[in-house]
Amino acid sequence: MRLTTCLAGSLTAIAVSLAGLPAVADDGSADATTNPLGSTDTRTVTFRGVQVEVPAEWPVRLIRDVYGRLRFVVDCDSGQYPTAAREQLQVGFLPVTCHLTCPVTDYATRTSTATRFESQRFTDFPTIVESIKGGRLEATFMIAPLAMKLREQGVPVKIAYLGHRDGSTVMVRSDLTEVKDLRGLRGRTFAIPSKYSNQYLVIRKLMDDQGVAPEEVRFVELPPPDMPGALAARAIDAYFVGEPHAAKAELDGSGRVLYHAKDIWPQFISCVLVVHEKLIRERPEVVRDLVRGIAESGEWAERHREDAAKVASPYFRQDEKVVRYVLTQPPDRVSYRMLTPTDEDLQKIHDMALKAGILEKPISMKDLVDRQFIPADIKPAPITVGAAQAP
C-alpha cells in the first residue's frame, strides 16, 4: 500500500479534508504553484505499520493529520479509492462487569473509522496469562495482583488504566441464615476467582479484622461463570466475585448478599487494563486509542446504564436482565469513573499481596504503571444502541 501525488482523485480527498487546503486537479496533476501539498518529489515513511510515499516537504505533523484522522491509504497499483486501512487489536476480557468497557469499546469501534478493537472472551485468568506469555495477546483486562505477579516474573506488562471501581460482591448460600459475617463461614468452602485476585486479598484482610484465621476457611479457585451454579448445587458455601455472577445467584434465590465490595473497601479495584511493552513500543498510537476508547466507553456506560447492559450482555453471554440489574440496582454498585491508576491505590494492593505471600519481592510503581496514554478530557463515546446483537 503506498500513497503518491499521482493518484487520480485520491489526493483530492486528502487535501479537501484538511481545513484551508484547495484540492488538486481531477486528473491528479500536481502544480507546485497551486498545489499546497507541494511538488512531485517524494520520500518514503512508515506510519502505523504501513510504508507510504509522500511529498518530500510534508512535515510529520501533516502526515499524522492525514493518516491519524482519515485512517485510509490508497493502493497505487490497483487504483482503488479509498481502501479502508484500520489498525486492529484484540483485547482480552472475562464476562464480568469489571471488564464491561472492553466489549462496549468493541461495539463502539465496529463501524467507526478509528482503530478496531476486538474483544476476546476468556472464562478464566490462567488462560489469559498463557496467551500473554505466548505472545498471542498484547492487551487485556485482568485482576490487579496478577498483573503485579506477571511483572515480578519478568513479563514486560504495564498497567495503563483501571477497569472499574467497586462491582464485586460476597455471596453466601441463601439457606445459611445463621451466617452474618465471615466468622459464620469457619469450616466452610469459599470460592475466589484466583489467589492472585484482589477479592482474595480483601477477604483475607476482612478475616483478619474479624479474628478468623486463614486456615479456618477452605478457599477454592473457580472461574467466575461457574460460581453461581456451584453455589446452587451446594458445592461451595460462599464466593466473592465480579458481577454479574453474584447478581445471578441473588436473582434466582440460591444466594444472598453478605457484603458489597464498596462497603468493605470504598472505590474497590479488582481489575486493570494491562498492555505489553512491545505494543507500547511498536504501536503507541494504538495504545492511546485503546485507553481513550476504554475511558470514553466507561463515561458512556455511566450515563446509559440500561443501554450498556444491552450492549454487554451478548458479549458476556448473560441474560440482559441480570446485567441490567447489576448496573442499576443500585446505580453505584459498580462505577466506570475515576479510573486513572494512582500509586496510592496500587501500592495498597501491592503491600497486601506482599503480606499474603502472593508477591515475593517489592515492585516499583514506576515499573508497573504507564499513565502517558490517559486522555485529559474524557467524553462519552458516540454510541447509538439498536437491538442487541451477538458479537
Protein model, in words:
The protein has 391 residues and is an alpha+beta fold. It has 2 domains: 10-84, no CATH class; 88-375, Periplasmic binding protein-like II (D-Maltodextrin-Binding Protein, domain 2, 3-Layer(aba) Sandwich). 35% of the residues lie in helices and 19% in strands. It contains 15 helices and 16 strands. The strands form 6 sheets. A 5-stranded mixed beta sheet has the order 12-11-13-10-14. A 3-stranded antiparallel beta sheet has the order 7-15-8, sandwiched between helices. α11 (284-303) crosses α12 (305-316) and α12 (305-316) crosses α13. The longest helix has 20 residues, at 284-303. The chain is globular. Residues 1-39 and 64-84 have low confidence and may be disordered.
Notable characteristics:
391 residues; disordered N terminus; five-stranded mixed beta sheet; three-stranded antiparallel beta sheet; alpha+beta; 15 helices; globular; 2 domains; D-Maltodextrin-Binding Protein, domain 2; single chain
Can you give me a brief rundown of this structure?
By secondary structure, this protein is an alpha+beta fold.
